[in-house]
Amino acid sequence: MTTTIELTAKDFKGVDPDWCPGCGHFGVLNSIQRAYADVGLQPHEVVTVSGIGCSSNAPGYINTYGMHTLHGRALPFATGVKMANHELTVIATGGDGDGYGIGAGHFTHAARRNVDITYVVMNNQIYGLTTGQMSPTSRPGLTTKSTPFGSIEYPYNPITSAIMNGATYVARGYSGDIRGTTKLIADGIRHKGFSLIDIHSPCVTFNLENTHDFFKQRIKKLDEVEHDASDWKAACEYAMEWGDTIYTGLFFEVESESLSQLDPILKEGGPIAKRSLPLTPEQADRLKSRLM
Amino acid sequence: MSGYDMAIAIGGEAGQGIATPGDILARLFVRRGLNFNSYNAFQSIVRGGHIFLTLRTTEETKYSHGDKLDILLCLNQDTMDKHLHFMKAGSKVIYNSDNITPGSAADGVQLCGLPIAELTGNARAGLNQNTVAVGAILYMLGLEFQVLKDSLTQQFQRKGEAIVIENVKVAQAGYEHAIKNFERFPDEIPMLSTPRGVWSGNDALAMGGAAAGVKFYAAYPMSPSTGLLHWFANNGRNIGAMVRQIEDEIGVANIVIGAAHTGARTLSATSGGGFALMTEAIGASSMMEIPTVYIDVMRAGPSTGVPTKTEQGDLWQALGASQGDFQRFIAAPLHAQDAFNLMAEIFNLTDRFQCPAIVLSDLLISEGHYSVDPEELDFFPTIDRGSTITEHAVGKTDYLRYKFTESGISPRAVAGLEGYVHVVATDEHEENSGLISDEFTNPHKRRAMVEKRSRKFENIVAEIAPPELVGPADADVTMIGWGSTFAAMHDSLALLTDRGITANFLSVKWIVPLHADKIAEVFANAKRTIIVENNQSGQFARYLRGETGLVPDGHIRKYDGEPFMPHHIADGVEDNLKNNTEQFIPFQEIVV
Ligand SMILES: Cc1ncc(C[n+]2csc(CCOP(=O)(O)OP(=O)(O)O)c2C)c(N)n1
Ligand code: SF4
Ligand SMILES: [Mg+2]
């Protein structure tokens, strides 16, 4: 194969985004592209998979293999890609509605299976693409088009949920902090197993409460408090905090074999996708003899 | 000519071990090279509930479980009470005389009570009653005891010597009791040259998939499709295939597209409810132009319906699966071997035309068991991946995933190749997969892309074989059906001949594309046409009328959960001819 040339974030640029000016997702996109370059990936070795939403438009803006799939279904598609060709680097991207609302069931099980996917969620606590309805992470009281008198529901906590579901790498970023977010994503890619990077990524058009200013005033890095990322209880406590201080950084990490490392079918024979399709005569004979 | 034709029914309660005597008898028949099929009518899939297993073995090729019973083995009183009325002169009813009271049987029915406690020396009488009964059946069939001894030895070997000895002993007691007390059937059971094996319809679908190169199977359990999941779980390692049980059918339907995008051939199966959850993904497969094959093993619906009963109720669900206006293949295999052969064919079609395919099986085909000669199966079918690109590019390419072509087919590079980096999208897109919707909803681009996809199906009917008329060309009646009704229609021809009616039939396997011209020709040449289907509203009849304008002279429909027996169809045909009945709904005699 051709020699690998070191690439920069620019090499991972696709078409120009059509997000609203100031949308938090720009920062996340930038961080993803930088992380790909930092890890030393080549565009053809990566599959960026998304669902549907403003955030889920990302694969088109990235120069890698991309799958822009169905609302809430990024993780099943990504799991299929990864399991059929575990040599590929697979990143799933999407929004809070996509991942924690309609796709919450898949999120639980992808984490539990510890499938080696890096899941980057652009959490704006709102449904952006559908012009501003409550999302699973909307705070009580948030007025949206579907909650004109303020949301009365308790919000979903992606960090504690991921830890409880068995994710082996769980982090929170803020899209205004490109350097920090890039590192969290890059480390998530290097991590073997399911990693969640939930990134606060303000929707400047439809969520006028959780704005860039809101986060800038509250964000505190876990590095500053000497959090031990192997301590899941402490991780959950930091993750539950939502007031004057909102923590970002690596909450939890543990080493554990990923699904492709565990599945005996991948121990030899290479990726499923590259296996020759016809049965071997020995395989066919075994099937025949089982009929008799 | 009719040849040897023997049907044995075993009735009891789920959990009474009906499968074991069923397996022993099935193996005995197929080892002699006989044709075999079985149908299991049951209420629930776990403990309790009535089960009624019909095993039929024939010298000629038959596809259904037939119309008559020669032996009824009652494992409980319920079976005796429910089914004795079905037994006719010349047949035998076997039961445990210790605890089952026979009812009043028709003249000429031999009631064969087995004093089980005495015959087993009280040794685990309940457990052993099935084996005693099999011993008696063997005598009635005119087989030497040694045949059964060998078979029991093989069956119970895994459980140890003591179990083998115990089983042989009680079987012999049953055999010897039968010598003294019961009569043999007059017909000698034939011994043909080539021994055969046994498989289920689900085995056939799974094996056909394996031969077609399936290397990724995903599913969520749902009766009656679960047999495929079990098959792949047991055989995946042998064939180098990954098997995944997923959290729900939505996940299943999407995960197989993800895997297919990397170049693997992928498969999943479910039943109607799971299929309903899969439908959004089927549209995604079409829009992204990633080939997929989904199997829907139909059961009686709607909703949870009757999980253990059969129906052809999902035709319109398959036709309308997923929003939007797009191309898909839909095929309903006619029987187990047809299902096996279909898989390689349909995988080639989906690879070549880069679209989804739906296979409509049903409980009758999938859970039925049949004799099979492995040497007749093509385990190395032609594999044609069309314009799939699976090698890295040399040098720079100006690859466009959705390139406009005359055929509508754009070469499909699988993910991970150098030189072909691209995005696939479920939003409408341009040749380079840039999105048209959201911002750029250009009507000319949209139209061109819709037409590109639809061009793939312009001459699609030429890709598949037309259905074939079975039976004499110049018949009084022509029956038309689809999928699994093949079995009962096929086996009804002989009955109709006996009643002085000549009939032929056309079983349609390919729903989409539909060989409309061939079907129209059959209608044009028919004296009288009757559509036979296993549902209430005539789903196929309505589809056929919509596609061709053809309307038959009558309908035979059944929607009680049980499959057609051949005489149900013969009765319907006769009624139509005599009384010009528009619709005939047969009465189901065997109630489980
Ligand atoms: C099955 C289905 N239901 C609903 C929609 C409509 N829909 C598209 S995006 C979206 C929500 C997007 O919110 P989120 O995932 O948070 O992304 P954001 O736009 O906020 O980045 C919804 C409800 C859809 N496309 N498909
Ligand atoms: S609507 Fe909100 S999330 Fe969508 S692009 Fe605009 S700012 Fe971003
Ligand atoms: Mg959102």
Structure in words:
The complex is a heterodimer of chains A (292) and B (592). The mean pLDDT of chain A is 97. Chain A has an eight-stranded mixed beta sheet, with helices on both faces. Chain A has a single domain, classed as 3-Layer(aba) Sandwich (Rossmann fold). Chain A has 292 residues and is an alpha/beta fold. Chain A starts with 24 loop residues before the first helix and ends with a helix. Helices cover 33% and strands 15% of the residues of chain A. Chain A is globular and about 70 Å long. With 592 residues, chain B is an alpha/beta fold. Chain B folds into three domains: 5-181, Pyruvate-ferredoxin oxidoreductase, PFOR, domain III (Pyruvate-ferredoxin Oxidoreductase, domain 3), CATH 3.40.920.10; 199-376, Thiamin diphosphate (ThDP)-binding fold, Pyr/PP domains (Rossmann fold); 465-584, Rossmann fold, CATH 3.40.50.920. Chain B contains 18 helices and 24 strands. In chain B, the strands form four sheets. Chain B has an eight-stranded mixed beta sheet, sandwiched between helices. A seven-stranded mixed beta sheet of chain B has the order 9-8-10-11-13-12-21, with helices on both faces. The radius of gyration of chain B is 26 Å and the shape is globular. The two termini of chain B are 33 Å apart. Chains A and B meet through strand 2, helix 2, helix 4 and helix 10 of A and strand 7, helix 7, strand 8, helix 8 and strand 9 of B. Bound molecules: thiamine diphosphate, iron/sulfur cluster and magnesium ion (MG). The site of thiamine diphosphate has 19 residues of chain A, from strand 3 and helix 3. The site of magnesium ion (MG) has 9 residues of chain A, from helix 3.
